[in-house]
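Predict the 3D structure for this chain.
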Amino acid sequence: MNPIFSQYSAVCECWSQVITSLMRNQWQILDSQYAAGIELLDAAVGAPTGTRPAPQTLEQKALECAHRGLPPPREVYQAQNRSRIDWSQFPEWARPIDPEVFEGTAHEG
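Done. Predicted structure below.
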């Protein structure tokens, strides 16, 4: 190997360390800004920091859909779930058919 080029490997290693350090520092800055932004948004909406909102119950999801003009999930109309719902809060079009209409039949709605 030529003695002139023998020092280039040390230069390449030095530049590699410099670039790696620079990128790591930039990443740490971006990460800290992101974390601060998340904490700021959590504080703005009143959510505890670092937690997810509680999952919606079937009743809440159905009511939200109905208020937006969308049909509630099918599960709310199943016989085992009908008693869980306060149907007075729903628009008329979203309420289930009266089960007594089908008295004496095997219809499940």
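The chain is about 50% helix and 0% strand.
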